[in-house]
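This is your field. Have a critical look at both lines of this record:
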Amino acid sequence: MNLSLFLLLLAALLDPDRQKLIEIYESQFDALRSQIPGKLRFTPAQKLRMARAAHALGRKAMKGITTLVTPDTLFRWYREAVRAKWDYSKKRGPGRPKTKAEIEKFILIDCQNLRKIGACPGLNLPKPIGRPWWAPTSSLGKSLLLSA
Protein backbone atom coordinates (compact mmCIF):
# COMPACT_ATOMS: atom_id res chain seq x y z
CA MET A 1 0.00 0.00 0.00
CA ASN A 2 1.27 3.45 -0.81
CA LEU A 3 1.72 6.28 1.60
CA SER A 4 -0.25 8.41 -0.83
CA LEU A 5 -3.21 6.04 -0.47
CA PHE A 6 -3.08 6.37 3.31
CA LEU A 7 -2.86 10.14 3.01
CA LEU A 8 -5.83 10.08 0.66
CA LEU A 9 -7.76 7.97 3.14
CA LEU A 10 -6.84 10.30 5.97
CA ALA A 11 -7.95 13.29 3.90
CA ALA A 12 -11.23 11.49 3.19
CA LEU A 13 -11.85 11.14 6.89
CA LEU A 14 -11.42 14.88 7.28
CA ASP A 15 -13.38 15.81 4.14
CA PRO A 16 -16.78 14.08 3.69
CA ASP A 17 -16.90 14.97 -0.04
CA ARG A 18 -14.00 12.66 -0.70
CA GLN A 19 -15.78 9.72 0.88
CA LYS A 20 -17.31 8.79 -2.50
CA LEU A 21 -13.85 8.77 -4.08
CA ILE A 22 -12.65 6.50 -1.30
CA GLU A 23 -15.56 4.12 -1.90
CA ILE A 24 -14.61 3.93 -5.59
CA TYR A 25 -10.99 3.12 -4.68
CA GLU A 26 -12.10 0.52 -2.16
CA SER A 27 -14.36 -1.21 -4.71
CA GLN A 28 -11.48 -1.31 -7.22
CA PHE A 29 -9.17 -2.57 -4.50
CA ASP A 30 -11.63 -5.35 -3.60
CA ALA A 31 -11.94 -6.32 -7.27
CA LEU A 32 -8.15 -6.57 -7.63
CA ARG A 33 -7.77 -8.49 -4.39
CA SER A 34 -10.38 -11.04 -5.44
CA GLN A 35 -8.39 -11.78 -8.60
CA ILE A 36 -5.20 -12.63 -6.70
CA PRO A 37 -5.06 -16.40 -6.13
CA GLY A 38 -3.72 -17.85 -2.88
CA LYS A 39 -2.16 -16.25 0.10
CA LEU A 40 -0.29 -12.98 -0.24
CA ARG A 41 3.33 -13.02 0.87
CA PHE A 42 5.01 -9.83 2.03
CA THR A 43 8.66 -9.08 2.63
CA PRO A 44 9.67 -7.89 6.10
CA ALA A 45 10.22 -4.37 4.71
CA GLN A 46 6.70 -4.32 3.26
CA LYS A 47 5.24 -5.57 6.54
CA LEU A 48 7.10 -2.91 8.48
CA ARG A 49 5.99 -0.13 6.14
CA MET A 50 2.32 -1.16 6.31
CA ALA A 51 2.50 -1.63 10.08
CA ARG A 52 4.01 1.81 10.68
CA ALA A 53 1.39 3.44 8.48
CA ALA A 54 -1.41 1.58 10.29
CA HIS A 55 0.00 2.55 13.68
CA ALA A 56 0.20 6.20 12.62
CA LEU A 57 -3.40 6.09 11.43
CA GLY A 58 -4.74 4.35 14.54
CA ARG A 59 -6.97 1.37 15.22
CA LYS A 60 -10.29 3.25 15.06
CA ALA A 61 -9.51 4.76 11.66
CA MET A 62 -8.32 1.39 10.34
CA LYS A 63 -11.69 -0.25 11.04
CA GLY A 64 -13.35 1.69 8.22
CA ILE A 65 -10.61 1.07 5.65
CA THR A 66 -10.29 -1.87 3.29
CA THR A 67 -6.81 -3.38 3.52
CA LEU A 68 -5.00 -6.41 2.18
CA VAL A 69 -4.70 -7.86 5.68
CA THR A 70 -6.78 -7.30 8.77
CA PRO A 71 -5.99 -4.36 11.05
CA ASP A 72 -5.20 -6.86 13.82
CA THR A 73 -2.48 -8.36 11.62
CA LEU A 74 -1.04 -4.92 10.87
CA PHE A 75 -0.90 -4.03 14.57
CA ARG A 76 0.62 -7.45 15.39
CA TRP A 77 3.34 -6.76 12.83
CA TYR A 78 3.93 -3.38 14.49
CA ARG A 79 4.21 -4.96 17.96
CA GLU A 80 6.66 -7.56 16.62
CA ALA A 81 8.76 -4.83 15.00
CA VAL A 82 8.91 -2.84 18.25
CA ARG A 83 9.72 -6.00 20.22
CA ALA A 84 12.53 -6.87 17.78
CA LYS A 85 13.94 -3.35 17.96
CA TRP A 86 14.29 -3.42 21.75
CA ASP A 87 15.54 -7.00 22.02
CA TYR A 88 19.16 -7.01 23.15
CA SER A 89 19.51 -10.78 23.57
CA LYS A 90 22.02 -11.04 20.71
CA LYS A 91 24.30 -8.49 22.36
CA ARG A 92 24.41 -10.39 25.63
CA GLY A 93 26.90 -13.14 26.23
CA PRO A 94 26.29 -16.54 27.78
CA GLY A 95 26.79 -15.22 31.30
CA ARG A 96 29.25 -13.49 33.56
CA PRO A 97 32.70 -13.31 31.99
CA LYS A 98 35.45 -15.37 33.61
CA THR A 99 37.70 -13.72 36.14
CA LYS A 100 41.20 -13.13 34.83
CA ALA A 101 43.80 -15.55 36.18
CA GLU A 102 45.96 -12.80 37.67
CA ILE A 103 42.99 -11.33 39.56
CA GLU A 104 42.00 -14.77 40.82
CA LYS A 105 45.58 -15.38 42.01
CA PHE A 106 45.61 -12.01 43.79
CA ILE A 107 42.30 -12.79 45.54
CA LEU A 108 43.56 -16.18 46.72
CA ILE A 109 46.79 -14.70 48.08
CA ASP A 110 44.88 -11.88 49.76
CA CYS A 111 42.40 -14.32 51.29
CA GLN A 112 45.23 -16.52 52.55
CA ASN A 113 46.74 -13.49 54.26
CA LEU A 114 43.36 -12.60 55.75
CA ARG A 115 42.86 -16.20 56.86
CA LYS A 116 46.07 -15.98 58.86
CA ILE A 117 44.43 -13.33 61.00
CA GLY A 118 41.04 -15.10 61.03
CA ALA A 119 39.16 -12.82 58.63
CA CYS A 120 38.49 -15.23 55.75
CA PRO A 121 36.76 -18.35 57.13
CA GLY A 122 35.71 -19.63 53.70
CA LEU A 123 39.03 -21.23 52.77
CA ASN A 124 40.10 -24.62 54.13
CA LEU A 125 43.39 -23.39 55.52
CA PRO A 126 44.88 -24.18 58.93
CA LYS A 127 43.35 -22.19 61.77
CA PRO A 128 45.36 -19.26 63.05
CA ILE A 129 46.63 -19.20 66.61
CA GLY A 130 44.84 -16.76 68.89
CA ARG A 131 41.45 -15.12 69.04
CA PRO A 132 39.76 -14.18 65.72
CA TRP A 133 39.18 -10.47 65.24
CA TRP A 134 35.40 -10.95 65.18
CA ALA A 135 35.09 -13.00 68.38
CA PRO A 136 33.58 -11.21 71.42
CA THR A 137 36.04 -10.39 74.21
CA SER A 138 33.69 -9.68 77.08
CA SER A 139 31.37 -12.06 78.92
CA LEU A 140 28.40 -9.88 77.83
CA GLY A 141 29.36 -10.33 74.17
CA LYS A 142 29.72 -14.10 74.66
CA SER A 143 26.31 -14.36 76.32
CA LEU A 144 24.67 -12.33 73.52
CA LEU A 145 26.33 -14.57 70.95
CA LEU A 146 25.13 -17.73 72.71
CA SER A 147 21.54 -16.45 73.20
CA ALA A 148 21.11 -15.59 69.53
